[in-house]
Model the fold of this input.
Amino acid sequence: MNELRIHGVPADVIKALEADALRANSSVEEVAKRVLSQYAGQPTAAAAPQQARLEIDRIRTGIERRHGKLDVILPLLREDRNR
Done:
């Protein structure tokens, strides 16, 4: 695995990384890797749920454009399923 050392990181940046790590029950290194991966445009495991939600929203929008709002369609689908 590659290693990266960064010297001279401002104290407020380190504190923000530590706070994020504490909230995520993770390490500062994991948070820093996630932030750097996101900056580089590479998906991370932590980003997967968010990407899935965005994909679901994209699909939902496409369905609604073609067939109308889902709140109208879903009861009809349920009714058809119960036949």
